């Protein structure tokens, strides 16, 4: 240390312009040199973060002293914390992951990071140095999961240990650098009261939906990505009686069910040799052998939808799922398509009969241009008419009133 300092003991200190400190090449060189010196002292990696930060600040100061440059204290501290995040965390993502107000983190190449707060996306100041920096951080995230990310496997969808979900696409598929999408896991799940207070649902509507769950109605929740489908599914699941056995199937486990008797199943992608994949359809079929009272499929997106509908039709009442769609009616069209994807050879009328006899309610949610999420319509499946599924409107957001003829109004005070 003393020898390093002695190189600049008699040199005048030139002030380093603040804008230069954001330069990617400078940061890369600083990070590399400081981390190399830290690695020479392996015992440091067992220290508390505060002790490591003091040591890193000293190394960063020496780095600029060696070059005869003066750096403001606040800039030096910020650079030291960046290095600490590189060593012990996830680099530029570390403060974003620790911010509980952020729900989504979107990385579009090394120089563009956006976050979602209260339903609105905004760009943040954090940056990566280059593509290699993004990949280094992402691979550190994926390392405990045993997931591979390289040119031969350029896409990954995974669940982090804290429950957050991460999706990564890298070059050559991503043309402008690595693209990363992180859906953060909420430490404190939203409640029905939170949705009512936030205006996502009216109180009478929430009572109706919770009653539908308690009375074992089969429910499909539809909406776009980020509209709040999983959030609503989580909240409604808490009205499942505690003595009932619930089996959940998801691609990446996000559900936070309040039920005390839950068996969670998660799909598995193929390994590097293309083997070992376990899909949602296999898990739905296996779930039916596990003596479930209800089956919850996190998302219906393919041939597993047919098995889910059959489960609803064979005594597993009160089961639920979500689907990407633009409206309640479109959700049924999506189901029709998925049934065909499963290789079902029956007529269109039979396909519609399977859907109509399986489902009771379709709840459609959306997110408006201000980032606010709402239940915009609730449709009841009333039967078939000339082979077409008939729907009965129970609720529309523009009216914010429930219909009176939905069959449960005698048990719900103030339904309209």
TrEMBL record:
<dbReference type="InterPro" id="IPR027417">
    <property type="entry name" value="P-loop_NTPase"/>
</dbReference>
<feature type="domain" description="AAA+ ATPase">
    <location>
        <begin position="215"/>
        <end position="382"/>
    </location>
</feature>
<dbReference type="InterPro" id="IPR001482">
    <property type="entry name" value="T2SS/T4SS_dom"/>
</dbReference>
<protein>
    <submittedName>
        <fullName>CpaF family protein</fullName>
    </submittedName>
</protein>
<dbReference type="InterPro" id="IPR050921">
    <property type="entry name" value="T4SS_GSP_E_ATPase"/>
</dbReference>
<dbReference type="InterPro" id="IPR003593">
    <property type="entry name" value="AAA+_ATPase"/>
</dbReference>
<comment type="similarity">
    <text>Belongs to the GSP E family.</text>
</comment>
<dbReference type="Pfam" id="PF00437">
    <property type="entry name" value="T2SSE"/>
</dbReference>
């Amino acid at each position: 240390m003393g020898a390093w300092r002695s190189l600049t003991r008699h040199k005048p200190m030139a002030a380093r312009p603040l804008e230069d400190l954001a330069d990617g090449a400078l940061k890369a060189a600083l990070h590399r040199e400081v981390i190399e010196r830290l690695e020479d002292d392996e015992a440091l990696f067992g220290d508390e973060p505060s002790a490591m930060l003091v040591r890193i600040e000293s190394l960063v100061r020496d780095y600029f002293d060696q070059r005869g440059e003066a750096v403001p204290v606040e800039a030096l501290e910020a650079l030291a914390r960046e290095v600490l995040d590189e060593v012990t965390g996830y680099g530029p993502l570390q403060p974003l992951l620790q911010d509980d107000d952020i729900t989504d983190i979107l990385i579009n190449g090394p120089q563009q990071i956006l976050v979602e707060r209260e339903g609105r996306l905004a760009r943040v100041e954090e940056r990566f140095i280059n593509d290699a920096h993004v990949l280094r951080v992402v691979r550190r995230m994926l390392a405990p999961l045993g997931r591979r990310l390289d040119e031969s496997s350029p896409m990954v969808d995974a669940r982090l240990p804290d429950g957050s979900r991460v999706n990564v696409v890298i070059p050559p598929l991503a043309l402008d650098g690595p693209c990363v999408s992180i859906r953060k896991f909420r430490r404190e799940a939203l409640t029905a009261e939170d949705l009512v207070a936030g205006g996502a649902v009216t109180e009478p509507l929430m009572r109706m939906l919770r009653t539908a769950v308690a009375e074992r109605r089969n429910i499909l929740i539809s909406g776009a990505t980020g509209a709040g489908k999983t959030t609503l599914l989580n909240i409604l699941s808490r009205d499942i009686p505690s003595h009932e056995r619930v089996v959940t199937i998801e691609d990446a486990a996000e559900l936070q069910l309040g039920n005390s008797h839950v068996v969670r199943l998660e799909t598995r992608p193929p390994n590097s040799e293309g083997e070992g994949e376990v899909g949602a359809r296999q898990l739905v079929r296996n779930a039916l052998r596990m003596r479930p009272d209800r089956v919850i499929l996190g998302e219906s997106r393919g041939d597993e939808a047919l098995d889910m509908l059959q489960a609803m039709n064979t005594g597993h009442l009160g089961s639920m799922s979500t689907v990407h769609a633009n409206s309640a009616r479109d959700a049924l069209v999506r189901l029709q398509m998925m049934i065909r994807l499963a290789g079902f050879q029956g007529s269109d009328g039979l396909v519609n009969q399977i859907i109509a006899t399986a489902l009771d309610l379709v709840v459609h949610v959306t997110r408006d241009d201000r980032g606010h999420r709402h239940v915009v319509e609730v449709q009841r499946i009333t039967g078939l008419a000339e082979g077409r599924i008939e729907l009965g409107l129970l609720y529309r957001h523009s009216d914010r009133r429930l219909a009176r003829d939905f069959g449960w109004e005698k048990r719900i005070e103030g339904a309209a």
